[in-house]
Request: fold
Amino acid sequence: MPITSTQDRISEIYRKEVALSPGAKFESHTHELGEEILVLQGVFSDENADYPAGTYMMNPPGSSHAPAATRVVFSS
Reply:
């Protein structure tokens, strides 16, 4: 589960910063409008790969994943 989360809304674009506790996991979910992620610290993982700090990802509309973390801070 997220340990901290902040969210800003600018027009129809959302920016959220999330910090996950070690071992945190999310259920598989779908991003109907897509999602962009920048890993700020730690390693962000899903069923596809592990993404270290500095990684930028763009998940297309309709994509789904089940993220997990050892310790991560990311912005999306």
The domain at 2-75 is CATH 2.60.120.10 (Jelly Rolls). The two ends are 16 Å apart (CA to CA). The chain has one domain: 2-75.
